Amino acid sequence: MNHFLCGWNANRLNAIAPFSASVVAALVTGAIAAHPASAIEVQVSPSDPELGDTLSVVVETTGTETEAPVVQFQDKSYTTYELRDNVYRVLLPTSPLDTPGEHALTVTGEDDQRNLAVWLKNREFPTQSIWLPPDQETDISDYEYNIVDAFKALVTPEKFWNGAFLRPTNGDVSTIYGIRRYYNGEFAEDYYHRGVDYAASTGTPVVAPAAGRIALVGYEADGFVIHGNVVGIDHGQGVLSILMHLNSISVQEGDMVEAGQQIGTVGATGMSTGPHLHWGLYVQGVAVDPVPWRYEGFE
């Protein structure tokens, strides 16, 4: 089944992803990157990430801080969240649009600052060639764009999920994360498939991959011509799921859902060539590979 339009970002849905990488400190590669005498210690995982992975930055302090440490990465600042006494964490995204190689990461506490070099491995993504007729409408309305864009920017301090994420529906994977495309023979520099597609029959249950708050409900009939009937779940701390092309929706904005709770059914609404579910997982506004979250997770 060809779902070639699923994940099409319609020019303006592109997210600009910061670079991420495994940590190399003082020319030594490893997960722990801090001097023992430092007021803060930094642990980064996975130790050998590649394009599309989510990077976990854990900061341990001496306990004298009155504010959470801040992580700076690719000209962006990220707040860390307390895991337990004196231990903080922030999750950072990588994507197929990032440049492999070494980049800077800075962790700043009240009494210390750690400057780290980070390294991101390359990853080869398949490519597709798509031919669209000249009059094919692929742009997104201001209405749809603004609502979806606001959802992707959500960062809630609370953490709602626990452990690994669930597969959101039955059915075979029809399109993997990260596929790059040529449109009418021209490479789409800013495009990559921002999620995983599952081919399933119309009406197949769709469940929440993890606990969270329903922060987006949109309907094709109300103007969601690209996403179709869509549900967005805020899992907390900048981690979000978007489930697209649904046939029916069984939740409302503001509902709290548990992992495995049904939120709708598979459909072919919006810009879709057949029944399937598109699951996108966003971290700090950037679509990351959902697969590691299903098998490894972040506590």
User: How many separate domains?
Assistant: 2
What value does the Rg take, in angstroms? 20 Å
Report how far apart the termini are: 36 Å
Q: Give the percentage of residues in beta strands.
A: 35-45%
Assembly state of the chains shown: single chain
Name the structural class: mainly beta
For the biggest sheet, the summary is: 10 strands, antiparallel
Output the CATH homologous superfamily of the largest domain: Glucose Permease (Domain IIA)
Number of strands: 23
Spell out the helices and strands N to C: EEEEEEEEEEEHEEEEEEEEEEEEH
The CATH topology of the largest domain is Glucose Permease (Domain IIA)
CATH class of the largest domain: Mainly Beta
Description:
By secondary structure, the chain is mainly β. The chain folds into 2 domains: 22-120, Immunoglobulin-like (Sandwich); 127-295, Glucose Permease (Domain IIA). It is 5% helix and 40% strand. The strands form 4 sheets. Strands 12, 15, 16, 17, 18, 19, 20, 21, 22 and 23 form a 10-stranded antiparallel β-sheet that branches. The chain starts with 21 loop residues before the first strand and ends with a helix. Mean pLDDT is 87; it is low at 1-36.
Topology:
Blueprint: E1 22-25, E2 28-29, E3 40-45, E4 54-61, E5 70-73, E6 76-79, E7 81-84, E8 87-93, E9 101-108, E10 113-120, E11 127-130, H1 142-152, E12 172-175, E13 180-183, E14 186-187, E15 196-199, E16 205-207, E17 212-218, E18 229-236, E19 239-249, E20 256-257, E21 262-266, E22 276-283, E23 286-288, H2 291-295
Parallel strand pairs: 11-13
Antiparallel strand pairs: 1-2, 1-10, 3-4, 4-8, 5-6, 5-9, 7-8, 9-10, 12-15, 13-14, 15-22, 16-21, 17-18, 17-20, 18-19, 19-21, 19-22, 22-23
